[in-house]
Amino acid sequence: MSSNGIRDRALNLVKILPRLTLGNLKRLSEDVKKPKNRRRDRKSGKTHGKGHKGQGQRMTLPRLGFEGGNTPFYLQIPKEPYYRNHELRKEYVPLSLLQLQRMIDLHRVDINHPIDLSSLCNTKLLLVDWERKQFGVHLTDEGAEHFDAKINLEVQKADEVSIAAIEKCGGIISTRYYDPTSLHAVCNPAKFFARGTPIPVCKVPPKDDLDYYCKAENRGYLAKPEQVLEHRLILAQRYGYMLKDFESEEEKEMLLMRKDPEQIFYGLRAGWVVNLKDRCILKPKETIHEQYYKLLEESA
Amino acid sequence: MRVSFDADLISDYEVSTKEMKFVDRLLPKQTVPQVPDNITGITPSGWIPSKESSTSLPYFVRRTKNHMLPVYAEVQHTNRHLVRIKNIDGDIWAFEKDLCEYLENKHNKRPILSQIHEVGRFIRIKGQYIHDVGDFLINKGF
Fold it and tell me: Average pLDDT of A111-124?
């Protein structure tokens, strides 16, 4: 084989192989330090680092935590498992109604469009970091008595009082779950679009959260719409207010805007690629892609 | 992740610009929005715009980039509470005198300890007076 052929093959190989990044760098084998081998020769000293006589030299030391017959410390003190299942626990950034009202007052969020996690993160006033296992925002009731805006809001968790405060003003609230991949896209849409990857399909909530998002009293996105209407009435009676009607067709359209459970951005479907440079959207046309996303959406 | 530049692997796609309005809504604003003109008096969240009258004083306190008062609570060694007021323009000594007088009158002539940083343009006051300082600045129209 000629040298030219080898060069072509090598070039093709470089194109196919994964790129060298910080994630897949490996240390050189010479750099790995071997543990010191304590031999029994003269070079290793008289006692070979083991000391003189006794349990240390004969390797008959008692086990770790043994206190010579006493009940050891680790058995005397009862276990307090504060950190049990810490790897599975989720964190939610608190967002009070006062903070939300302040954002609305100073035009940081636009109430003429539905407000979701993307618009809240785009204010740069709150940070949702999924590396710290933060799964979105939790709407809290601080400032509920001063809240005064008709909005279509979507958060991840919400108190009963804050749900009542929003519905009292004629607004609509829903709680929804984003899986980590979707959350990454939702928290910084500009960065996600610049990457040029297809919009992901949002997965169903995990087992421990499924119950929360199926309940109408939490205004979960998987709850039945009839039950949500019923619970809106129940909450209005409990807190003593009248539910407001829509004032115009436009407002009705805005307030009733909902995402599908598998959809993560309003007006954009999974599988599409956004090209920010040429300002256009690329939609896959092949049946294999359509089938793939249909299958995923059905399973979601 | 496999990166391939083979043209044969690119599948058929459709180019659309109709949905770009939804994309534009998802892009963050490049600057903090200006204060809305139509605000008169206090907003539902308790935010108050700065007044014209504040410019006639020998000193001026600028708002932060988020249109808030530059007043911050500090805690040192878990129990030493301080209030820091930043962005002070003009006569900082006159400002400190007026502020301490206001606080002393409000708290039964209790002496107020303060520290002036003339180069850094900030003042620190000992004690948990963050709300009183906020009231003072709003009364002055900043």
Answer: 95
For the domain that residue B90 is a member of, what is the CATH number? 3.30.780.10
Q: What are the chain B neighbours of A267 within 8 Å (beta carbons)?
A: 19, 21-22
Rounded average pLDDT over A173-197: 94
Summarize pLDDT for A233-278 with one digit per residue, the tens: 999 999 999 999 888 999 999 999 999 999 999 999 999 999 999 9
Distance from CA of B16 to the nearest CA of A (A): 5
Q: Model ipTM?
A: 0.89
Instruction: Quote the tokens at residue A91.
Output: 């964190």
The Cα of A101 is separated from the nearest Cα of chain B by a number of Å equal to 6
Q: Give pLDDT, residue A178.
A: 96
Q: How far apart, in whole angstroms, are the C-alpha atoms of residue A236 and residue A165?
A: 10
Residue B4 lies in a domain: no
**How many Å apart are CA A128 and CA A91, to the nearest integer?**
10
Both tokens of A274, joined, read 């956004």
**Cα A208 from Cα A213, distance rounded (Å):** 10
In this predicted structure, the answer to whether residue A296 has a pLDDT above a threshold of 60 is yes
Q: In sequence order, which residues have a C-beta less than 8 Å from that of residue A202 and are 6 or more positions away?
A: A177, A178, A179, A182, A261, A262, A263, A264, A270, A300
Regions of chain B where pLDDT drops below 70 = 1-6
Any domain includes B103:
yes
Domain map (residue ranges) of chain A: 91-299
State whether residue B7 sits within 8 Å of chain A by CB.
Answer: no
How many domains does chain B fold into? Answer: 1
Chain B residues near residue A113 by CB distance under 8 angstroms:
25
* Residue B9 resides in a domain: no
